Amino acid sequence: MNQQETAALKKLFQDHGYQIVGFNEPADVYVVNTCTVTHIADRKSRQMLRRATSSNPSAIVAAVGCYCQVAAEEVLAIPGVNIVIGTQDRARLLELVEEVARRKQAGEKYPKISIVRTLEEKPVFEELPLPCSGERSRAFLKIEDGCEQFCSYCIIPYARGKVRSLRPELVKERFQQLLAAGYREVVLTGIHTSAYGKDLPGEIDLVGLLKQLLQLQGEFRIRLSSLEPAEITQELLEVIASSPRVCRHLHLPLQSGDDEILKLMHRPYTTEGYRRLFEKVWEMIPGVAVTTDVMVGFPGETEKHFENTYSFIASLPFRGLHVFKYSPRPGTIAAGLPGQISPEEKEERSRRLRNLAKNLEEEFARRFLGHKLVVLAERRIPEGVGCWEGLSDNYLRVVFSLPLGVPKPQGSFVSVYIRGLRNGRLFGEPVFEEH
Ligand code: SF4
After folding, report:
1. What's phi and psi for 336, nearest 5 deg?
2. Model-level pTM?
3. Ligand 1, closest atom to CA 226?
4. What is the pLDDT of residue 137?
5. How far is the CA of 414 from the centre of ligand 1 (A)?
6. CB of 192 closer than 6 A to ligand 1?
7. What's the gap between Cα 18 and its chain centre?
8. What is the pLDDT of residues 140-155, one digit of tens each?
9. CB of 295 shorter than 6 A to ligand 1
10. What pLDDT shows up at residue 271?
């Protein structure tokens, strides 16, 4: 989500004649789109801001996003930071940069402006420009913002506020703009994507939106970002199973494979429920890639709880997992729980799960040796003449080589017959046929 929003901010500046340079190059304006999901994210946000202010002390420095939303005063107090915006008003960034520039020209030494609106009432859906340069084949489309689930460890509901959805007609309009810009895969993203439409009751939900998008003309595929396991419906699985234009990929955050810990986390499912869902997904959508998030070192997580998580994950054919170390977020329930786990223990548990992840990834990829996968060609790679790399709908990296004289496939779908697996990537040969 932050990547998508950062790309949107770049577009905002580009549309007004600014030139975007790398963060290490001298610039007149620096923008740090901050994150607060862990204490390390807070620290990195502060470090980036300090780097910006010291690279060019006369530059305008703006901090925006989640960390600013929850710690506005702290960010504004960093010397050299001129602008602080939370998670609702980033579209006003340019206007504020220009105001700071005017005030500086008028002789004001350290102008400071902060716009961090409360999220308690009805937060607005932040309208940012659609980042569609067409440079890549995959685009992210933000359809939802906010979360009201309040998992006990999570700061995001405080940084993003209540669920709000982009109206379906606007989603369709933006989707078509992305297709017109040359994108062939659109990832529907949100903070709590499966809650799409919760604020538009009786009007639409995620399944309804998907059905509307699937009626659009053109060669494309849709990928869904993270969905809450307890909100996966039979109807949603039927839509995914019946349309080759919806990627066979579900990211279903598990967080823990132990019921006691899940309860403490305020996650609304049990391991048994998750297993049943996984089995159903696996049965209804052949070849589906299920990826997940798992957190280690939640307060009170004993070795036994961790072993339960490890063996639960090892018992299911996940395509991959993202492993996170629990980080106490001030203001959340879990931050005040007893039994905080040492950093060394968290690291050790994380290491064990990352090793498991490698094995699971390899096992999943191996299932497709001797099969055909439809790959969206992304980029040429230097590993051989005519070598290309892309992503299959079920989230596998595939390398293939093209015979001489075949036009560049960038941004198009290629059927690839899979022959080998090396270092986590599948290798194959294109099969030329109509899709
Ligand atoms: S569902 Fe839970 S983990 Fe996800 S954003 Fe909401 S509160 Fe955070």
Report:
1. -100, 5
2. 0.93
3. 4
4. 87
5. 36
6. yes
7. 27
8. 999 999 999 999 999 9
9. no
10. 98
Of 336, 331, 300, 431, the C-alpha closest to 375 is: 431
- CATH among 3.60.15.10, 3.40.640.10, 3.40.50.12160, 3.40.50.720 for 2-115: 3.40.50.12160
Q: Is 151 in the pocket of ligand 1 (CB under 6 A)?
A: yes
List the single range of 136-140, 266-270, 343-347 with lowest mean pLDDT.
136-140
Domain edges within the chain? 2-115, 132-247, 259-265+273-367, 372-431
What's the CA gap between 435 and 278, in Å, rounded? 29
Residue range 231-245, pLDDT digits in tens: 999 999 999 999 999
Rounded distance between C-alpha atoms, residue 13 and residue 96, angstroms: 12
Distance of CA 263 from the midpoint of ligand 1 (Å): 14
- Closest residue by CA, ligand 1 atom 4: 192
- Rounded CA separation 113/298 (Å): 37
Give me ligand 1 centre to Cα 17, in Å: 37
Give 132-247's CATH code, choosing from 3.40.50.300, 3.30.750.210, 3.30.465.10, 1.10.10.60.
Answer: 3.30.750.210
